[in-house]
Amino acid sequence: MFGLVAEHQPLIHARGLVKRFGEFTAVDGIDLDVEPGEAFGFLGPNGAGKSSTMRMISCVSMPSAGELRILGMDPVREGPAIRARLGVCPQLDNLDPDLTVRENLTTYARYFGLSRAQARERAEEMLDFAQLRDKASSKVEPLSGGMKRRLTIARAMVNEPDLVLLDEPTTGLDPQARHLLWERLFRLKQRGVTLVLTTHYMDEAEQLCDRLVVMDGGRIVAEGSPRSLIESYASPEVVELRFGSEPLEGFVERLSGVGDRVDVLPDRILLYAKDGDDAVSEVHRRGLAPSSVLVRRASLEDVFLHLTGRTLVD
């Protein structure tokens, strides 16, 4: 059974939270609450303040200003007590290469005061959870990237934490490994585990997060469920137009008034419209002949581009 917290008390509560590094302000006065059982995401470009916020939540970096409570406790005075109830999956795997898969789990469990018998029992449960039982006696080095990530998440779960922090959990994985990891994280959600993750991947945020914030320049620029953000910041449909090698800026004026908004990306133009097919018909009526046309539903990627004004990875 996962640890208990006071009823109706957010697991994470921040008001005016600030993190400075010398003259640079990485996190600039953010407010947020994360409720028990929620999957909460931080979305944003590199340098937005996501990882700095996560490091404060994980009690390895102290706030420069503002209020922060984790599990109802003050990280400045009660850091060790908070860390004992956290599960942390860092952006880069830090598994012990000299130990087997099973030993990585049992050794980590012992750090939290579990007896040898309890550590072995939890390790066996986590091997099944991560689908790594057939690799239990293997050293870490031969494992694939996806297996290492699953092992890192399983290790983060070995102490039955109240809160699991995942920093870019699927970065560098191929699509098959990402989807398997998503399925494992969804199972944690179903068990009532509270997840907090940072990600660059829009589809990952849509798949996993009940609620998320978009950060840019150290500030929160939007907050809500994936669907509510899409409804608030994007039209129902998006038309992607490509015009071969021709400079795209020359088409913007000719597309004025088609749909609700026109965005120019390096390789294509996006038209945001209530009805994508009607927008395509209007494009052709204006004598334009794009080399390719795609009509799709709006996504978090469109929200991200609108709010941050840049491509997905800087």
From TrEMBL:
SUPFAM superfamilies per the UniProt record, alphabetical: P-loop containing nucleoside triphosphate hydrolases (SSF52540)
Organism: Nonomuraea dietziae
Cross-referenced SMART domains: AAA (SM00382)
One annotated GO biological process: response to antibiotic
Compartments, record wording: Cell membrane
Keyword vocabulary terms for this entry: Antibiotic resistance, ATP-binding, Cell membrane, Membrane, Nucleotide-binding, Translocase, Transport
Major localisation: membrane
Chain ranges of the ABC transporter domain: 12-242
PANTHER family: ABC TRANSPORTER ATP-BINDING PROTEIN (PTHR42711), ABC TRANSPORTER ATP-BINDING PROTEIN NATA (PTHR42711:SF5)
Name of the protein in question: Lipooligosaccharide transport system ATP-binding protein
UniProt family annotation: Belongs to the ABC transporter superfamily.
InterPro entries xref list: AAA+_ATPase (IPR003593), ABC_transporter-like_ATP-bd (IPR003439), ABC_transporter-like_CS (IPR017871), ABC_transporter_ATP-binding (IPR050763), P-loop_NTPase (IPR027417)
Record GO terms (molecular function): ATP binding; ATP hydrolysis activity
